[in-house]
Specification:
The protein is α+β, with helices and mostly antiparallel strands. It has four domains: 5-227, 2-Layer Sandwich (Heat Shock Protein 90), CATH 3.30.565; 233-398, 2-Layer Sandwich (Ribosomal Protein S5, domain 2); 416-540 and 597-639, Rossmann fold, CATH 3.40.50.670; 547-579. The chain has 19 helices and 23 strands. The strands form five sheets. The protein has an eight-stranded mixed sheet. Strands 11-12-15-13-14 form a five-stranded mixed sheet, sandwiched between helices. Strands 17-16-18-19-23 form a five-stranded mixed sheet, with helices on both faces. A hairpin with a 7-residue loop joins strand 9 and strand 10. Helix 2 (41-60) packs antiparallel against helix 4. 42% of the residues are buried.
């Protein structure tokens, strides 16, 4: 566990008087989205994060070094830690057990001015009570070093009084709950990999903690992983670098840290050979996806420090245009983690930090210690400056390419791509564009579509490998430029979501190896240059059928080998099977009724983790490193069957 002041044990008592009550639990079940973001898959997983965050807060206070998360049958989750255990004594303001208060009253906890915690991400009582309110039932078991206490709740209401089960010399809390299907109507099934991403993140952010994730569901393959990283956020940076399949331009991860009273900041970063930027910021172990004062301070102070060093040591001239943030951030991998009291988040889902004082702390840290690093490592400083200058030149070239494109088409109106068959409606809330592989399939799609709201853009041939390209090459690329122009948003730093011309962007490619390649290329492009399209749920993958099974006048489409076999068995043999090797083999009517008709089609919405996975695989398969690609092919060749050559 870290030895920074922020993580040393608090000296004040953490007892029933530490739990302060602010208000009741009334509105959670009526408006759950206000507290967990949504009642879909994202909100479902947020319940786990709230409980785990409370255990992590015990780690920050210096009392917990092991957390176990188990996935059980029927959507049940169990989270166990070896912290101090939630207080169980009678709360002097309510006259009831503090355990009951924590799980039944909103904004009741040890982090609202009580003496239980210096810093906190999860807010004991906010998270616990919200999870309780949105669960069919919840059971909590507390060990305080003397006794074992247990209490059960149903839909946020006490169903049994707190009871003593026995004696113990252990401490900790076990929360077991079942999410309420009346609230989470889409699904109550947890995704192991989604939880793994979040828990791995927490293990990186808290050097020394051990987090164990176990899948014990009978309908799923048993999985268990033990997450423990002694290097903390330095290990995190190394992990991100390894996933990107890029080379580091630094000999080692740069690490800066400082404390000021009850606030602390630590930053780990390096530059890689990539062209994209990966900056992940955290406040009290909460991923601030929308950044905030700490992330902004890091970016701004990094620019000032590098420009100052460049001018001082003659890499840059005083008269030159200074390097900008986009120039310096190219290839940057950074983790910014701050700990502070009274963290001011924009909402309960905590996506952006607003504390100005922590920005000052981060700014001073980078201004003082990073300049020292550059002066002590002149060879690495030279590499960083040279990469930043090269990026600046490319940015200027990209601007010229954009200006040239605008001058060719006129400043007032951008000419749409020649092959775009646009829709009639201009209402961007209901329109959709199909990006189709090949002119043949594009022709069928144009004939079969509903032209009122469906636009078709055919692509032909392999597009640009954005893994090795800067924005200036993307703007001038004949394959990607039509996509950029049709969508209307621009890319990279000029991206504007408000200018998006279609609500749904559907990638429609053949169900074969080449089609998978094109989908991966486009996903990587969107992830690198238009990530908000993915974040806000605009990107979809069409699911064309693989087979048409016919018997007499009856025709059924199958989307997999297994589905084909089931249909054959259902129809009783002597059937005619048509294998679609490409979209172009379907006529307009077939393409409409199987793949484009909103009433019957199946489409997959692309989530950010899907794009990240595509990006990692694409980096491996199309990047400069040969060995990871060779190993991937050797490990996965056994799974390739019935390959059409």
């Amino acid at each position: 566990m870290n030895n920074n002041d922020i993580n040393t044990p608090v000296t004040e008592a953490y007892d029933e008087n530490s739990i302060q009550v602010l208000e009741g639990l009334e509105a959670v079940r009526k408006r759950p989205g206000m507290y967990i973001g949504s009642t879909g898959e994202k909100g479902l997983h947020h319940l786990v994060y709230e409980i785990v965050d409370n255990s992590i807060d015990e780690t920050l206070a210096g009392f917990c070094d092991k957390i176990t998360v188990q996935l059980l049958d029927d959507g049940i989750i169990r989270v166990e830690d070896n912290g101090r255990g939630i207080p169980v004594g009678i709360n002097n303001k309510t006259g009831t057990s503090s355990l009951t208060v924590v799980f039944t009253m909103l904004h009741a906890g040890g982090k609202f001015g009580g003496s239980g915690y210096k810093v906190a991400g999860g807010l004991h009582g906010v998270g616990a009570s919200v999870v309780n309110a949105l669960s069919s039932w919840l059971e909590v078991e507390v060990r305080d070093g003397k006794n074992i206490y247990k209490q059960r709740f149903e839909r946020g209401i006490v169903s049994s009084k707190m009871e003593i089960l026995g004696e113990t010399d252990e401490t900790g809390t076990i929360v077991t709950y079942k999410p309420d299907p009346d609230i989470f109507t889409d699904t109550t099934t947890y995704d192991y990999d989604t939880l793994l991403v979040r828990l791995r993140e927490q293990a990186f952010l808290n050097a020394g903690i051990r987090i164990i994730l176990t899948d014990n569901r009978s309908d799923f393959e048993h999985q268990e992983i033990d997450l423990h990283f002694a290097g903390g956020i330095k290990s995190y940076v190394e992990y991100v670098l390894e996933k990107s399949n890029k080379e580091s331009l630094n000999n080692e991860v740069i690490y800066l840290s400082t404390t000021n009273g009850d606030s602390a900041a630590e930053i780990a970063f390096l530059w890689s050979s990539a062209y994209d930027t990966k900056i992940y910021s955290f406040a009290n172990n909460i991923h601030t996806m929308d950044g905030g004062t700490h992330e902004a301070a890091f970016k701004n102070s990094l620019v000032r420090a590098i420009n100052k060093y460049g001018i001082k040591f003659k890499f840059l001239k005083e008269s030159d245009t200074k390097l900008k943030s986009d120039d310096i951030n190219e290839g940057l991998i950074a983790i910014v983690s701050v700990k502070l009291t009274d963290a001011q988040f924009e909402s309960q889902t905590k996506t952006k930090l607003g504390n100005t004082s922590i920005g000052t702390l981060v700014n001073n840290l980078v201004a003082e210690k990073f300049i020292e690093y550059l002066e002590d490592h002149p060879a690495e400083a030279k590499i960083i400056l040279e990469k930043s200058v090269a990026s600046s030149n490319a940015r200027e070239a990209a601007q010229k390419a954009r200006d040239l494109q605008r001058s060719k088409t006129g400043l007032s109106r951008v000419r749409m791509p020649e092959k775009l068959a646009d829709c009639i409606s201009s209402d961007a809330t209901r329109t959709e564009i199909f990006i189709v592989e090949g002119d043949s399939a594009g022709g069928s799609a144009v004939k079969g579509r509903d032209r009122d709201y469906q636009a078709i853009l055919p692509l032909w041939g392999k597009m640009l490998n954005v893994e090795k390209a800067r924005p200036d090459r993307v703007y001038g690329n004949e394959k990607l430029a039509p996509v950029v122009i049709a969508l209307g948003t621009g890319i990279a730093e000029s991206f504007d979501i408000e200018k998006l011309r279609y609500d749904k962007i559907v990638v429609m490619a053949d169900a074969d190896v080449d089609g998978a390649h094109i989908r991966t290329l486009l996903l990587t492009f969107f992830y690198r240059y238009m990530p908000r399209l993915i974040e806000e749920g605009h990107i979809y993958l069409a699911q064309p059928p693989l087979f048409k099974v016919s018997k007499g006048k009856q025709h059924i489409y199958a989307f997999s080998d297994l589905e084909r076999d089931i249909i054959i068995e259902k129809l009783g043999g002597n059937v005619d099977i048509q294998r679609y090797k490409g979209l172009g083999e379907m006529d307009a009517e077939q393409l409409w009724e199987t793949t484009m008709d909103p009433e019957f089609r199946t489409m997959l919405k692309v989530k950010m983790e899907d794009a990240e996975a595509a990006d990692a695989v694409f980096s491996m398969l199309m990047g400069d490193e040969v060995e990871p690609r060779r190993k991937f092919i050797e490990d996965n060749a056994q799974y390739v069957q019935n390959l059409d050559i």
